[in-house]
Backbone:
């Protein structure tokens, strides 16, 4: 049974449509990451669930019952704000204990919570005397204190530096697992979303584009937007030339490429996605292309290579043992099962194509 | 914590101030007579003596003088309160030229010798009001007064016309006729001499010689004594107060001024108020007037100090506009005058 | 969250009605506050204006026309403008150089001088009038000094009872406003604009003319507009320093009410018409000021703070310009502090026939519980009255102010602007006109308030509450709403979130608002003078009554008490302000 269910939620602010018929179902104990570019309506969705806003249409159900009209203080939703919104006039202890005033005897108690988030010993500090990471932990502990049914995290790590971000997201995940609390985690960082979530929901301008496991969202994005937004990829326009029972023959520029069989009919134009890590140098693969190396990005753990073919600029995640030099002509390729044709992308017209970043 | 401390200080201050302020209200037990009077009756005049003696005679009675402004300002205040039906005043002391306005509003109760026995000793010539709503208790003459240490006899103006000379630039202090009975009387005096068509022209020329127009006699006289200007509009009797300050009889005249007391129609204490008036007219109080008010007592039986009889000048030519005329045109003269002093035109 | 216990089903449902009820409560409060405002501001003022616009019960412009065509009233209105204009120019002349010096130099006492610019807001104007009279009056300290030095028999400075005196007193009182507004803008002006101009070849003067002046001009204009309004509505200074020969719109209305001047005025028609004209003018000016303040200010992001240099450093000591500036600062200190020092001195001094001597007589007088007929009250009671009326009015204004500020700051609806404008009117209405309106509206049943102390409290509250709103609105707008929302999600009701989170965090500012309101009420004289019931005096009224009788000493002692209270309030204000900034 779905624990939290959003049904066709619509929210307008004046002329601006913030949420357009958004539906989402979340199971108990699940962690769903809500990801999308800024301004797409993620925060609004959280605020609706928390009861800080009222939807113009649609319904929000918790354990099968509508919670519309229930004021925020009665919804039992824990919310961690983007900049934490810690009460500046209260100590760490008072901040965490604040919600317990209204739910006496429930939950873990302040010291257990502080231990859980690793802040024991800082009880008497004021928020201003804490580091950003510590503030984040207090905010989490405060939200968890009154034993909420649902935990909402609004970009909880966006104010922190990269290293701390990685450490804390592991920790949030650990705490979420320990408490088995249903959680919605809003972020604009797709990598963070993939890393932390049981399921990822991708939003674009007021709409939910794709909801699925990190694997599904990454490998089989439903829309071009999702394909672009999640991870790096080579998104190309291709003409379906012919098909056999297992495969499609695509024409990408002048190159012929075999792809795994999907629905599209022959003689249509489709959009295809080939992830950079699927591309290999050499001629060991089913599909072979030739290109010139025009750029390199070395990020420490990875090496990205930009390849120019006659029609496209490709991005390839190279094996670190390789050290291809700029300007050299190389052979590269990928297997047919690594070419993903985006569903519903078939058109009669050829579309403009360009590589994704 | 400063914030909490401030809050407490404010709270305690509020409670203390409130209770302190209201604890004044229940001071008096018995009946109270509230007397509206001009300022000089309190700061120079016999107010203290009258209060003490009267309260001695009528135990349980408290006399409260209110003198927050000059005579005509007090009258205006009384009228406003009276019209709103909530004046605390039982009695009013003021000048003869205010009678028309008081009558217009029916402020005072008509009185007779039956009500105030001492009225019998007041000479007929002082009883300007046939209905006796304000009964006279003192009288005198408005004149200029000069500082004999600042002006030599040959420098003095002899006539109203002399007073316009440039040599007296900023040498004169006058009172505002809107708020002061002395100022009003002086205005009427110029009307007497220059007529209702000429008085404004006279004042226009007089303006450069006026240092300041003060709201009341008290303020004007205080400035005069401090030496701000050598001449002031005051009373012919002033030399008795201090021989240095001598009367200056323009055109040989003095403008007649009579002060009277009346009972406010809305008083709760008519009997006590009549007793107060009778006391005010009694020789005991009347004999105090030369030394305090520096005015002639109204009661003919009151003896005045010999020195007062010598020093208090009675102008050879006392003048006065008939009250009917003041009643009819006074407000208009006043308004024109007020406009003139502000615009200078 | 504990995995062992299954989640209970969410709260008893639904309560759409409850949410509506909660919101309704807030708007209910706003409605009550609005009703209060209508009853004690809009209705009396509208009634007064209607009196000026009707003749025999019918709409008529007769009285307006009568005033506009009458030479006398033309003179009064013209003079009101004239003196306000010159006072504003004088304030700019005095204030602008000081703003420059404060922006460009460091010197000992700079912090104090800067803090001192709050003076016009907290110092009661009657004490300014008194101090000014003591200092430059004909027998004032300055004249005595000059007479002694130059061996003169006549006082050389003839400022009392003159237009120059009024203008100078206004300049003293209001120059700090110019300093305050201009300095604030100048300090925030990014020096790179001027540096760019210099690099492009502009000389110092050209830079000032082409770059600096245009950029600080909006704030100068807005400061000047405020000064103009203050001078336009100035009452105690014109009354006391001008004497009977100067009449502004304010003084005219007051005098007419207080002296029942002409029979026509007894039905108040002309007074009402004059009030209407005065109100229209001051409303227009206030609107202009708020517009200027809101729209013309350049918002430049300051990337580098303006450099300041020490005024007195070893290497620059010999420069004559520094001595000029030093001299000017000394003059400013003299002009700003002089009147207050004069009051302080006079409060401990007694003139006697043989000269004079130190005394505590005046202080024992003002703390005496004995009734004084000249005040119409006991001096001690006047002191206490001022305190409790001030605190009550401040509290009332705070409650009203909080509700309105909440409505303005939180409203998402279009009414917000309307509400803002609605509250602007009391700000622009002079106390004399408001008191006049009260006199006319509340002298008859059913609301026969005139003659009670309540009416004084009410009029004070109405006068100070727009200022409280103006302190509170930016405070509430600047408040991070998410803090309240966090509390809501943690289980606090809207009311508790307001009480436990928002109000404690706004407390320093709220306190500052109360203190500000108290200081304003403490100095309020004009409306009190017109409305005070018999046997009731406050400190400013007592000072005025004593000063108008040309008595000194006692009013000085009372003024010292007022100045002290005002400065105490001002000090608390600064401290509270500091806490707001530094607290967290």
Residues:
């Amino acid at each position: 049974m779905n624990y939290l269910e959003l049904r066709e939620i619509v929210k307008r602010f004046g002329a601006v449509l913030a949420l357009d018929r958004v539906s989402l179902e979340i199971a108990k104990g699940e962690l769903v990451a809500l990801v999308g570019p800024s301004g797409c309506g993620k925060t609004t969705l959280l605020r609706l669930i928390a009861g800080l806003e009222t939807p113009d249409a649609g319904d929000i159900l918790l354990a099968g019952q509508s919670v519309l009209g229930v004021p925020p203080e009665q919804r039992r939703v824990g919310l961690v704000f983007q900049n934490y919104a810690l009460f500046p006039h209260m100590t760490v202890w008072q901040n965490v204990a604040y919600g317990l005033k209204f739910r006496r005897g429930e939950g873990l108690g302040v010291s257990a919570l502080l231990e859980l988030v690793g802040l024991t010993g800082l009880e008497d500090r004021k928020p201003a005397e804490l580091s950003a990471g510590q503030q984040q932990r207090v905010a989490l502990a405060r939200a968890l204190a009154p034993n909420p049914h649902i935990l909402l995290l609004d970009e909880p790590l966006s104010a922190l530096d990269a290293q701390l971000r990685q450490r804390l997201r592991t920790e949030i995940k650990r705490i979420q697992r320990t408490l088995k609390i249903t959680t919605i985690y809003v972020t604009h960082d797709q990598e963070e979303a993939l890393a932390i979530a049981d399921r990822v929901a991708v939003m674009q301008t007021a709409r939910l584009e794709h909801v699925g496991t990190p694997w599904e969202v990454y490998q089989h994005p439903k829309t071009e937007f999702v394909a672009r937004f999640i991870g790096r990829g080579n998104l190309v326009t291709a003409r379906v030339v012919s098909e056999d029972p297992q495969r499609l023959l695509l024409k990408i520029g002048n190159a012929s490429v075999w792809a795994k069989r999907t629905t599209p009919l022959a003689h249509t134009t489709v959009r295809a996605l080939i992830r950079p890590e699927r591309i290999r140098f050499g001629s060991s693969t089913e599909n072979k292309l030739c290109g010139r190396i025009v750029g390199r990005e070395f990020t420490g753990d990875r090496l990205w290579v930009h390849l120019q073919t006659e029609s496209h600029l490709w991005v390839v995640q190279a094996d670190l043992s390789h050290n291809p030099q700029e300007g050299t002509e190389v052979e590269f390729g990928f297997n047919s099962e690594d070419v993903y044709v985006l569903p519903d992308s078939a058109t009669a017209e050829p579309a403009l194509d360009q590589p994704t970043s | 914590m400063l914030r909490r401390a401030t809050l407490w200080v404010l709270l305690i201050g509020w409670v203390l101030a409130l209770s302190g302020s209201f604890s004044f209200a229940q001071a008096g037990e018995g009946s109270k007579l509230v007397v509206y009077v001009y300022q000089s009756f309190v700061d120079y005049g016999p107010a203290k003596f009258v209060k003490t003696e009267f309260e001695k005679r009528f135990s349980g009675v408290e006399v409260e003088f209110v003198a927050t402004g000059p005579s005509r300002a007090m009258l205006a205040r009384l009228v406003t309160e009276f019209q709103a039906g909530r004046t605390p005043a039982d009695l009013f002391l003021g000048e003869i030229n205010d009678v028309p306005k008081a009558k217009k509003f029916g402020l005072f109760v008509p009185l007779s010798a039956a009500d105030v026995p001492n009225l019998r000793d007041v000479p007929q010539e002082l009883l300007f009001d046939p209905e006796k709503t304000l009964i006279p208790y003192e009288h005198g003459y408005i004149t200029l007064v000069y500082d004999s240490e600042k002006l030599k006899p040959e420098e003095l103006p002899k006539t109203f016309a002399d007073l316009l000379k440039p040599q007296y630039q900023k040498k004169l202090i006058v009172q505002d006729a809107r708020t002061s009975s002395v100022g009003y009387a002086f205005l009427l005096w110029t009307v007497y001499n220059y007529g209702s068509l000429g008085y404004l022209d006279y004042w226009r020329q007089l303006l450069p010689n006026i240092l300041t127009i003060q709201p009341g006699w008290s303020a004007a006289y205080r400035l005069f004594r401090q030496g701000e200007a050598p001449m002031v509009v005051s009373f012919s009797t002033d030399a008795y107060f201090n021989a240095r300050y001598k009367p200056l009889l323009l055109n040989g005249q003095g403008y007649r001024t009579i002060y009277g007391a009346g009972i406010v129609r809305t008083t709760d204490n008519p009997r006590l108020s009549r007793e107060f008036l009778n006391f005010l007219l009694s020789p005991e109080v009347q004999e105090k007037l030369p030394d305090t008010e520096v005015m002639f007592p109204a009661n003919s039986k009151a003896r005045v100090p010999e020195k007062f009889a010598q020093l208090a000048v009675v102008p050879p030519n006392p003048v006065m506009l008939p009250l009917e005329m003041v009643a009819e045109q006074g407000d208009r003269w006043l308004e024109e005058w007020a406009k003139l002093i502000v615009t200078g035109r | 969250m504990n995995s062992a216990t299954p989640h209970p089903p969410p709260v008893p449902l639904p309560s759409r009605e409850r949410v509506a009820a909660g919101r309704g409560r807030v708007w209910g409060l706003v409605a009550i506050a609005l009703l209060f405002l209508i009853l004690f501001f809009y209705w009396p003022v509208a009634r007064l204006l209607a009196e000026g616009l009707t003749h025999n019960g019918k709409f008529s412009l007769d009285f307006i026309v009568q005033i506009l065509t009458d030479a006398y009233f033309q003179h009064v209105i013209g003079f009101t403008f004239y003196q306000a204009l010159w006072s504003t120019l004088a304030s700019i002349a005095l204030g602008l150089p000081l703003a420059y010096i404060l922006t460009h130099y460091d010197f000992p006492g700079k912090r104090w001088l800067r803090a001192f610019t709050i003076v016009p807001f907290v110092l009661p104007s009657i004490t300014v009038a008194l101090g000014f009279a003591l200092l430059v009056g004909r027998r004032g300290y300055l004249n005595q000094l000059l007479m002694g030095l130059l061996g003169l028999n006549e006082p050389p400075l003839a400022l009392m009872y003159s237009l120059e005196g009024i203008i100078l007193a206004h300049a003293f009182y209001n120059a700090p406003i110019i300093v305050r507004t201009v300095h604030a803008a100048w300090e925030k002006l990014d020096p790179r604009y001027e540096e760019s101009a210099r690099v492009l070849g502009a000389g110092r003067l050209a830079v000032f003319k082409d770059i600096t002046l245009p950029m600080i001009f909006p704030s100068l204009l807005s400061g000047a507009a405020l000064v103009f309004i203050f001078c336009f509505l100035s009452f105690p200074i014109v009354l006391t320093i001008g004497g009977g020969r100067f009449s502004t719109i304010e003084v005219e209305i007051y005098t007419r009410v207080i002296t029942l001047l002409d029979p026509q005025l007894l039905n108040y028609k002309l007074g009402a018409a004059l009030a209407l004209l005065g109100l229209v003018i001051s409303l227009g000016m206030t609107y202009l000021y708020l517009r200027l303040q809101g729209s013309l200010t350049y918002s430049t992001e300051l990337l580098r703070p303006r450099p300041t240099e020490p005024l007195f450093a070893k290497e620059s000591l010999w420069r004559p310009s520094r001595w000029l500036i030093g001299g000017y600062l000394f003059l400013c200190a003299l002009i700003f502090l002089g009147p207050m020092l004069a009051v302080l001195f006079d409060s401990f001094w007694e003139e006697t026939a043989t000269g004079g001597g130190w005394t505590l007589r005046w202080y024992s007088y003002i703390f005496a519980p004995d009734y004084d007929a000249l005040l119409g009250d006991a001096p001690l009671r006047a002191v206490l009255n001022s305190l409790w009326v001030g605190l009550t009015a401040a509290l009332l204004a705070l409650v009203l102010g909080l509700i309105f500020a909440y409505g303005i700051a939180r409203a998402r609806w279009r009414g917000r602007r309307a509400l803002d404008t609605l509250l602007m009117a009391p700000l622009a209405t002079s106390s004399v006109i408001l008191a006049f309106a009260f006199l006319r509206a509340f002298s008859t049943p059913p609301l026969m308030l005139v003659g009670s102390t309540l009416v004084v409290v009410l009029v004070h509250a109405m006068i100070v509450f727009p200022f409280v709103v103006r302190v509170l609105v930016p405070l509430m707008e600047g408040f991070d709403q998410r803090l309240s929302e966090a509390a809501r999600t943690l289980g606090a009701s809207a009311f508790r979130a307001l009480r436990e989170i928002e109000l404690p965090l706004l407390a320093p500012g709220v306190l500052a608002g109360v203190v500000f309101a108290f200081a304003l009420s403490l100095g309020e004289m004009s409306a009190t003078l017109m409305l005070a019931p018999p046997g009731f005096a406050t400190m400013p009224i007592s000072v005025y009554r004593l000063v108008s009788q040309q008595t000194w000493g006692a009013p000085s002692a009372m003024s010292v008490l007022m100045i002290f209270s005002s400065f105490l309030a001002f000090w608390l204000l600064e401290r509270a302000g500091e806490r707001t900034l530094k607290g967290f």
